[in-house]
């Protein structure tokens, strides 16, 4: 009887979360906008085909104080710092989105490739001195930057360059950088073979550096990266993540052996369903499991077991302290910027559902079964919530739908553009725009904000509430793959 009751409860919960959307969504439009967002985050000299015209060139002399060219790359969020750790993860996830879902991208594939390359061009600059054992991992002093509210085109805050080396290791950020370069080498393998080879060779060198000089970059650069992107999870997962991508990109035996030798890093437990810029556990398991499901790599079977546990832990109704759902059906995890968890975990659900489909497999989860169709529906439910199927009836993607956040925590969006206000706006002069109740004058199309950070589905459309109202590149990057798939299949 208890077993039947549990089954009934699970069935009802799954039906609740799989209920049809209240309205059909234009996933193709959302995909276009999700990629367009990255043009609003560009640093450096903007290209002639820049579509968000209210942005202009910025930070053209980044790296000059260290005698290197570090212009380009992405601002990670609503500030003007270039943090290498989240930028590399963003590039990895954009690459994975293309690798798995490019056939569904249609006319947006070209823009997705440009978004990847804007990231890798910068990462190549940041690792150009890897032969000397140096990787540049950040440009800009966060305390100086966060003390001002000014446009990137105006900024006069400290553009301090931070690096890791043999004496000051950063295996986490270097490992993620190696993963990004390796993943992107797959993206460009047939499109630009020489560029792809350059990316892969650099990934190999950066990984060797990360593995040879072990340590967390937050120990080496604590004031610069904490509490902003402080690595609280350790660097071992980034080394394994990099090895997994290098194995996928190169098929070299040494990386397979490295993965098998270090798989103990991924102990099942509290981290089984963690995935983001700081924690790669669930991502590693899903990525490697594809080969197991294809019958090519039984020596990776433990990764598939972990991936199956991850899947089961995310099902609504399965009690797991690390993954909860709001009354409106949104994945909820403790901490700020909750949408980063929503998009990253949903990406893994969708990717794994495709791997299961091709292998004609399912995942047994106690009294229920996680089929590929179920996982796709769960991922789609999260995407639909973001696009407006939620208790507030608002889209959390700026510029999508009739109602969306208008006062996002983003300097360039909230201050008058250079075209409208050519005169410089100083450090503190921007404060009146920060505290203004008016909507942002520049629409950062496609930006997905942090969203609700509690389980009541509430959202304050207000700049000071940065955990809810700030967009980030690593929220959008996994969403690109999700929207591509749904635009091609729904």
TrEMBL record:
GO terms for molecular function: cellulase activity. SUPFAM superfamilies: Six-hairpin glycosidases. Keywords: Carbohydrate metabolism, Cellulose degradation, Glycosidase, Hydrolase, Polysaccharide degradation, Signal. PROSITE patterns: GH9_2, GH9_3. Pfam families: Glyco_hydro_9. GO terms for biological process: cellulose catabolic process. The keyword Transmembrane helix does not apply. It is an enzyme of class 3 (hydrolase). The active site is at 409, 461, 470. Residues 27-483 form the Glycoside hydrolase family domain. Residues 1-23 form the signal peptide. It catalyses: Endohydrolysis of (1->4)-beta-D-glucosidic linkages in cellulose, lichenin and cereal beta-D-glucans. Its EC number is 3.2.1.4. InterPro entries: 6-hairpin_glycosidase_sf, 6hp_glycosidase-like_sf, Glyco_hydro_9, Glyco_hydro_9_Asp/Glu_AS, Glyco_hydro_9_His_AS. The keyword Signal applies. Belongs to the glycosyl hydrolase 9 (cellulase E) family. PANTHER family: ENDO-1,4-BETA-GLUCANASE (PTHR22298). This is Endoglucanase. It comes from Vigna radiata var. radiata. The lineage of its organism: Eukaryota, Viridiplantae, Streptophyta, Embryophyta, Tracheophyta.
